[in-house]
Amino acid sequence: MAVKRIITNIQSERVTDAKQFYGDILGMDVVMDHGWIITFASDNQMVPQISIATEGGSGTQVPDISMEVDNLDEVLDRAADAGLAIEYGPVIEPWGVRRFYVRDPFGRLVNILSHE
Predict the structure, then answer these.
(1) Looking at residue 1, what is its pLDDT?
(2) How far is it, in rounded angstroms, from Cα 81 to Cα 66?
(3) Which partner from 4, 63, 83, 113 sits 20 to 30 angstroms from 72, CA to CA?
Protein backbone atom coordinates (compact mmCIF):
# COMPACT_ATOMS: atom_id res chain seq x y z
CA MET A 1 0.00 0.00 0.00
CA ALA A 2 1.27 3.49 -0.85
CA VAL A 3 -0.15 6.96 -0.38
CA LYS A 4 -0.49 8.38 -3.90
CA ARG A 5 -1.29 11.99 -3.02
CA ILE A 6 -2.30 14.27 -0.19
CA ILE A 7 -4.92 16.94 -0.76
CA THR A 8 -5.57 20.00 1.37
CA ASN A 9 -9.33 20.65 1.74
CA ILE A 10 -10.47 24.13 2.74
CA GLN A 11 -14.16 24.79 3.43
CA SER A 12 -15.47 27.98 1.81
CA GLU A 13 -18.23 29.31 -0.44
CA ARG A 14 -15.81 31.90 -1.94
CA VAL A 15 -14.78 30.10 -5.13
CA THR A 16 -13.96 33.35 -6.97
CA ASP A 17 -11.45 34.29 -4.24
CA ALA A 18 -9.92 30.82 -4.51
CA LYS A 19 -9.53 31.21 -8.27
CA GLN A 20 -7.82 34.57 -7.82
CA PHE A 21 -5.38 33.38 -5.12
CA TYR A 22 -4.58 29.84 -6.23
CA GLY A 23 -5.14 30.44 -9.96
CA ASP A 24 -4.10 34.01 -10.75
CA ILE A 25 -1.47 34.59 -8.05
CA LEU A 26 0.01 31.09 -7.76
CA GLY A 27 -0.62 30.01 -11.36
CA MET A 28 -2.36 26.74 -10.54
CA ASP A 29 -4.88 25.17 -12.94
CA VAL A 30 -8.41 24.05 -12.14
CA VAL A 31 -8.22 20.29 -12.65
CA MET A 32 -11.63 19.39 -11.22
CA ASP A 33 -14.81 21.38 -10.66
CA HIS A 34 -17.97 19.55 -9.59
CA GLY A 35 -19.76 22.67 -8.40
CA TRP A 36 -19.40 21.67 -4.74
CA ILE A 37 -15.62 21.17 -4.91
CA ILE A 38 -12.93 22.82 -7.03
CA THR A 39 -9.40 21.41 -7.14
CA PHE A 40 -6.29 23.30 -8.22
CA ALA A 41 -3.07 21.60 -9.28
CA SER A 42 0.11 22.13 -11.20
CA ASP A 43 1.71 19.76 -13.67
CA ASN A 44 4.54 19.09 -11.24
CA GLN A 45 4.53 15.54 -9.88
CA MET A 46 5.79 15.37 -6.31
CA VAL A 47 5.95 12.62 -3.74
CA PRO A 48 3.09 12.95 -1.20
CA GLN A 49 4.25 14.70 1.95
CA ILE A 50 2.86 15.74 5.30
CA SER A 51 4.82 17.71 7.88
CA ILE A 52 4.35 17.92 11.65
CA ALA A 53 6.00 21.00 13.17
CA THR A 54 6.42 22.72 16.51
CA GLU A 55 7.16 26.04 14.76
CA GLY A 56 7.44 27.37 11.23
CA GLY A 57 11.21 27.84 11.37
CA SER A 58 13.09 30.98 12.41
CA GLY A 59 10.58 31.34 15.25
CA THR A 60 7.59 31.82 12.93
CA GLN A 61 4.08 30.43 13.23
CA VAL A 62 3.53 27.01 11.65
CA PRO A 63 2.00 27.64 8.21
CA ASP A 64 -1.14 25.75 7.22
CA ILE A 65 0.15 25.17 3.69
CA SER A 66 3.65 25.26 2.17
CA MET A 67 3.97 25.70 -1.57
CA GLU A 68 7.21 25.55 -3.52
CA VAL A 69 7.24 27.73 -6.64
CA ASP A 70 9.72 28.11 -9.48
CA ASN A 71 9.67 31.94 -9.47
CA LEU A 72 9.24 33.43 -6.02
CA ASP A 73 9.66 37.02 -7.23
CA GLU A 74 6.81 36.63 -9.71
CA VAL A 75 4.46 35.24 -7.06
CA LEU A 76 5.56 37.95 -4.61
CA ASP A 77 4.77 40.62 -7.22
CA ARG A 78 1.35 39.08 -7.92
CA ALA A 79 0.56 38.97 -4.19
CA ALA A 80 1.60 42.62 -3.80
CA ASP A 81 -0.44 43.65 -6.86
CA ALA A 82 -3.46 41.91 -5.31
CA GLY A 83 -2.97 43.94 -2.12
CA LEU A 84 -2.15 40.94 0.06
CA ALA A 85 -0.25 41.60 3.28
CA ILE A 86 3.07 39.78 3.45
CA GLU A 87 3.24 38.47 7.03
CA TYR A 88 6.85 37.28 6.94
CA GLY A 89 9.73 37.78 4.53
CA PRO A 90 10.77 37.53 1.86
CA VAL A 91 13.85 36.08 3.51
CA ILE A 92 16.58 33.56 2.73
CA GLU A 93 16.57 31.00 5.55
CA PRO A 94 19.67 29.25 6.94
CA TRP A 95 18.44 25.90 5.52
CA GLY A 96 18.60 27.23 1.94
CA VAL A 97 15.10 28.36 1.02
CA ARG A 98 13.84 31.81 0.15
CA ARG A 99 10.28 32.32 1.32
CA PHE A 100 7.47 34.56 2.46
CA TYR A 101 4.20 34.07 4.32
CA VAL A 102 0.84 35.35 3.13
CA ARG A 103 -2.74 34.46 4.05
CA ASP A 104 -5.06 32.99 1.47
CA PRO A 105 -8.61 34.39 1.21
CA PHE A 106 -9.75 31.90 3.86
CA GLY A 107 -7.27 32.96 6.53
CA ARG A 108 -4.88 30.04 6.03
CA LEU A 109 -1.21 30.94 6.49
CA VAL A 110 0.62 29.98 3.29
CA ASN A 111 4.41 29.55 3.20
CA ILE A 112 5.52 30.27 -0.37
CA LEU A 113 9.09 29.16 -1.00
CA SER A 114 11.78 28.36 -3.50
CA HIS A 115 15.03 26.51 -2.99
CA GLU A 116 18.04 28.78 -3.48
Answers:
(1) 58
(2) 21
(3) 4
